Amino acid sequence: MKNVLIHLILLVLLLPATYAQSPNNLTRGTWANEDHTIHVKFTQKGKSYSAQLVWMVQPNNENGNPKQDVNNPEKGLRNRPVLGIPIIWGLELKDKQWIDGTIYSPKKGILARCQLEMPDTNTLVLKISKGIFSATKTWKRIK
């Protein structure tokens, strides 16, 4: 009986650590880009993963007002504040890779395809492509 109780206690203590490392929730949390100029927070809704812009080194324009999404290709969205907008959406986990996502660059006002991989729990490799152009970015977990 004593052994069963010890095993049950160990199981209860180790179960959260095992769950926290499952691929389904590895991306969740806050990440910094390579230049440490933005932070994005990844969340999961159903089978889809997305990321929202939650911090910027320069959130305000030269007049001290919050930066707006002035380069957005949709005219109706150009007055919204950049801070808080979704910048990645539609990622789906398949074979330890998040694929079929879309990334938005408010700085340039463009949409591109994206996917990501995680070589370890604190590193996110983001692959971005638009037409014949591609880029790879490495982001680090901050939370």
How widely separated are the two ends? 40 Å
Summarize the biggest pleated sheet: 8 strands, antiparallel, barrel
Question: What is the helix/strand order?
Answer: HEEEEEEEE
Q: Care to count the β-strands?
A: 8
Q: Output the number of helix runs.
A: 1
How helix-rich are the residues, as a percent range? 10-25%
Radius of gyration using CA atoms only: 19 Å
Structural class: mainly beta
Global morphology: globular
In the sheet with the most strands, the strands line up as: 1-2-3-4-5-6-7-8
Contiguous low-pLDDT stretches (5 residues minimum) are 1-21
Strand content: over 45%
Determine the mean pLDDT.
86
What does this structure look like?
The chain is mainly beta and 143 residues long. It has one helix and eight strands. The chain has an eight-stranded antiparallel barrel. Strand 5 and strand 6 form a beta hairpin. The longest helix has 19 residues. The protein starts with a helix and ends with a strand.
Summarize the structure.
The protein is mainly beta and 143 residues long. Helices cover 13% and strands 47% of the residues. The longest helix has 19 residues, at 2-20.
